[in-house]
Amino acid sequence: MRFATIPIATGPHLHYAEHGDPQGEPIVFLHGWPDSWFSFSRVLPLLPERLHAFAPDQRGFGDSDRPESGYTIPDMGADAIAFLDAVGITRVTLVGHSYGTFVARQVAIAHPERVSALVLIDTGFSTSNPVTQDLQTSLRDLPDPIPQQFARDFQAGTAYQPLPADFFERIIAESLKLPPRLWRLTIDQMLAYDDTRQLARIQAPTLLLWGDRDALFSRADQDRMKAALTAARLTIYDETGHCPNWERPERVAADIAKLLQQT
Questions:
Q1: Of 99, 113, 176, 198, which has fewest CB within 10 angstroms of its CB?
Q2: Whole-angstrom Cα distance, residue 175 to residue 146?
Q3: Is this structure's pTM higher than 0.85?
Q4: How many angstroms separate the Cα of 65 from the Cα of each of 7, 78, 118?
């Protein structure tokens, strides 16, 4: 695994992990909330070596810059395009998890010419539902610094399968890099985003990966996504929570590789 920080045209410096063949087919991973590149650390080493994988910390998250503004989903999508430009990628497979799926969707809607394929891991049809609304409410009076137990309880509630202890502790540490104001702001901006009327504009072959024990987004969400996208197929992971990339990394890597072989 290689690491670097790069300035992008939209303003911030983004930290990122890189893996695989520098001359290989590019694939970019966009993490969930309140995560970082590390959310994909169990998947990246399992990908075919012929791929050139990038996993940036999005604006405000992980070890990337935390400017005062620029946290709408369209802003994050613009950052993703600026990142592609900065590392010299013209066309890419985009993989998003949870929050990152909405950023990936925005990129595919606004810049279809840049997206060759799309993988959406535990996405929702809409950003807003009773679970995400309750989360938004719970963040209103969150103290500074973020209580470690709050981060621990939230992250533990997203997974169904047991996780390696050292991996989970690093997930907590990465979560706590996000400042309290951005815990609130990024969720507020996510819930303000609505692309449901634009989904038909996504033409890239799309793989929906969903854990059947996902506590955030439902099976009905996946069926609505599949109906809205002209080139989508759904793969369901049994006995898996909201984070297949944590819980089933071997299968996620294999399913991504299979999609790329087919496209």
A1: 113
A2: 9
A3: yes
A4: 10, 15, 26
